[in-house]
């Protein structure tokens, strides 16, 4: 390989290093020594030869090619297979073994790596320390490891920077003997040094002085011509190898490096991860609790509606209209035209395009069965079977678990369209006759454990005369509760928390009572609170006939079922035209109607929390890993000098950061699980954390990790640019 300088000049500020320097090196199988005093530019010359310093004037060419025209990829190849360097401080991977340092330097995948490695270990007397960590070996041994690594890929040129600087006399003599053996393999060896002891082993000697290279001696000219002919022949072979293996970096090497590096630094990774694990664990609990009490509670109002259903009620106005009435001191929640929907109203809805049907109903639920019996059933948790007492949720149970009758809101066939209580039948079916009931799943299990379960159940009831008795009912099925997480009743029935035992749907509309003269008088009296309200409601109760007209069908609520989900926006607009003051509730309105403002505020609050957690974790990560990244830069610079591309180097540091954050996520979730299992689940607060490990919650927490690792990776790889890598090599 011919290395040539033509009119090369280099300076640092006002200090001139090289001035119009011209020289050609073409010495296969020789040791060329460049001597010079400290500060004469020896290391600068080495950096130019190795391609890590390209800020000079003039030309540096390799085999006739101007190196300034070479791409980064070309230089990656040259540094990996054709030119190698042994630094004065060795630049080995200190936390890796001798063998691993060689393995990660390997670039010739078509030639047996094990044979080449064994040959070099034997040549340099390193076999006994093959599996020893580099940080545990001597300076002389490190020197030989660095040489072995440099020779592994059979380079044509070997550069050595002050190779005797850290060696005693014995190791220096040994080094010279090794270089002599290496020279005999046909390598061009260039030694940059101020130690003139090497001159007796050198074939060509230059002195760097007065900004020029001055030739001191040469070997036999005829011998050089023979070597030159051999070199030309070999160059053709090497150029052929360049075409087949150019810039080939093994993904396996990169993956193994990441794996080995993480293992070697596991203690540090764990220590620096502890604060982040604690932050993510605490954030997970706070985030889940806040989400449960705000966003989840809000969206639960809509989850009971089918995707193609709209719900309106005559007693629920839009927020804008209700605010307007309040400002006018009008104390009413109606539109001033009707108390209930009329048949004409329903007909107009049915005739709308894309409306499949309407379902009129009233929101009331019966807590008495059809014989006017009130349920008086309860369980003392002291009498719970042992299986229940072993549950973590047992600690959340009140001393007395109460049950209450509750009728289904809609007929069984329509419950699909609106199921606000989220009744989910897990066995059997919904009750249909007045003798049938739907019981909670844990109640069925309770009876099974007591060997008292059958198709018929005897319940304590109280009749309208306050007489207590036992009454038999048929169990039509069971519905799902969350009893394995909490025994706290989630429904308030008749003024107290109780688990419902569902009875069949009953129409609560009582037109006769609504249309009575007494009802008219009572309503008129209750609504005559001030002049503004009286004026606003005049069309409703000015006369008894007006009142009867406003009663209509006696149904204050209606479900509008669209033919398909995609038609909901269009149907919403049509309903708004018919009833501009009524609030429309649907899955669509949650994100597009008047509810969307509240929904977006809640989502924004959660996203702000996610962002704050991410920023806090990034700051802590950067603070804790600043020194590590600084040390990592030196290792990555070493890989760069071995021919790893910038992309490979960036992928290493980026992958390690991502892996660390994924480990933080999984460990944090384990911490949260332990805390929940042994503490939270035994407190009354457990209901706020039942969704910790839900898919939605985990995806949001993973979003935190992805954001954190993404920006942390950007910070980490920002140091991986050519200029900074080169700085760490100088």
From TrEMBL:
InterPro entries for the chain: AAA+_ATPase, ABC3_permease_C, ABC_transporter-like_ATP-bd, ABC_transporter-like_CS, ABC_transpr_LolD-like, P-loop_NTPase
Pfam families tied to this protein: ABC_tran, FtsX
GO CC entries: plasma membrane
UniProt xrefs under Gene3D superfamilies: P-loop containing nucleotide triphosphate hydrolases
Protein localization: Cell inner membrane
Membrane topology summary: Multi-pass membrane protein
Domain of life: Bacteria
Protein name (record): ABC transporter domain-containing protein
